Amino acid sequence: MARLGTDAARDLADIRRALPAASVAADAAFGARLAAHFPTLHGLFRRLYGDRPDALEALTGVIADAGASWAARPAELKAADARREQDTGWYLSNRMLGGVCYVDRYAGDLDGVRAKIPEFVELGLTYLHLMPLFAVPEGNSDGGYAVTSYRAVAPHLGTIDDLQQLATELRANGISLVLDFIFNHTASNHEWAERAVSGDPAYEDFYLIFPDRTMPDAYERTVREIFPDDHPGSFVQLPDGRWIWATFHSFQWDLNYANPAVFRAMAGEMLFLANLGVDVLRMDAVAFIWKRLGTPCESLPEAHLLLQAFNAVLRIAAPSLLFKSEAIVHPDEVVEYISLGECQLSYNPLQMALTWEALATRDPRMLRQALERRHALPDGCAWVNYVRGHDDIGWTFADEDAAEFGIDGFDHRRFLNAFYVNRFPGSFARGVPFQENPRTGDARVAGTTASLAGVEAGDPHGVDRVLLAHAIALSTGGIPLIYLGDEVAQQNDYSYVDDPALADDSRWVNRPHYPAEAYARRHDPSTPAGAVYEGLRRLVQVRRSTPELAGGRLVPFDAKHPTVLGYQRPGGADAAASADTTVVLCLANVGDAPATVDALTLSGFAPEAHELITDRRITLDRGIVLDPCHVAWLRVRPADAPPRF
Fold first, then answer.
1. Is the pTM of the predicted complex or chain greater than 0.70?
2. Which of 4, 402, 416, 440 could be disulfide-bonded to 56 (CB atoms 3.0-4.6 Å)?
3. What angle is formed at CA 589 by the lines to CA 583 and CA 592, rounded to 5 degrees?
4. At what angle do helices 301-317 and 28-49 cross, to 10 degrees?
5. Distance between CA 587 and CA 609 in Å, rounded?
6. Annotated catalytic sites, by residue?
7. Mind listing the pLDDT tens digit for each residue in 405-449?
8. Cβ atoms < 10 Å from Cβ of 567
């Protein structure tokens, strides 16, 4: 068997000779991309698989699959590729607005999602993330994160043809389709898994299977348990006595990416989804995808190499597809996954958690610190800023960051958990604990935005907190993401406890069904649904018309007030070149009382300002008063600039 060499050009020539002409000469565009990106892919394969005799065979297969995929790629998608290669920062626009939902809970099925496209357009969505919708096992599927097939939709949601048609109609309405790509593991009944445990030589190395406890015990000395209530350790026992790696649930079996055939197989699944019209893949559990004995098996260097290699394949055959990382790890590790060659987008779990921390404490210092230190990203990359997701809220701040304010991280997390599940005097929140450990006090929090912010409790500032939290997500840079239903103040759904399949997972409290009554009231500002909807739509409209809010650049601003968060948005990289260039000064009062940012603090700006949300001219020479739980977006100029708005 030929081995992978050190010369990329020679290996590419060998690969071209080994493939049918149609696979590598689909057209000039493919040939150019192959020539441009193959050296990168080749180098990554050498680092990952260079000592394996089957590495060149796998790489040859990857290129063949890429060629066949490009040849089959619809003309409309090839045209989108060409447009986005010219507009590489399309996702950095201030017009971007994301929404996320479960298909069945929000719309019944894929046809139901299509029927709601007018509502998406009304809200201003340009990005729709549909939660896991692939075929899964019956019963518990971890909310769809145990995939039986990446090429079949769960039957109750529709068909793969329905998904392709939805992608086409979304694109026609200016909305990009985002799907979860669960690539660390498959369901235990996936065809690959069934063939692996049956002894099929082509698949037995797709998973990590051991005959006894020797190797599992060795790995588990350094690997943490993720779901101890489901099974101890990281392995589960098969009926025949062997042990298979299962980081998460017992029915989710980890793939063995040390086998290059697994890389080829998963690259093929990505290309299939790209040709359906998917624009972004949310890369699930990215930190866990590579295993090495004697390590925690999280965030290893090879995990990054794998993501870069998958990117190289897609740049060849589906160049407009983006990756979004899901890495709920230490804040210093989250940013390691974000680059143009790895994940161009990333969730921002730290900002999300610290927004809620600031609302509970009425103190924005930790959030301000995070914006100052941890917000900057490589050029061309963007945060996906969200107020809350489909999962629980974990308090992901670094203890060393908290310690700078004299805050003990362990005690502070216990306070936040107590506050958000209404076990702290005066709490406005009505969250539910998730995976609570009574012995250690460890827990996380589940709940909808409205229930966590005080709307469910009838707190007078509940609606304002919902809008404040979203205003921060909308103005800090990147793609703001709304959990659909939160824009009409949907509240917790406690009926999950009556469903035996859901009762043990309290996260279902914040995954309600479509709140039809709330949507019917969305234009009535006298209701919480209407007040939130109209307030949020105003924020979205202002953002869309404010070029300073494009991109991700953020300049710190100390508002010199204990309850006011401040930061400046100067727009693109060249926006500050002129002395009289405007910036948007964002101020958010997380407190329950009015707050004044004094004139001295604002004296670096010209006295004339434009408050964008209320569309009024104001002067700053007497300071500015912010109502409780309110924000202001001020278009300002340097103090020595002429007044011109």
1. yes
2. 4
3. 170
4. 170
5. 13
6. 284, 326
7. 999 999 999 999 999 999 999 999 999 999 888 877 788 999 999
8. 24
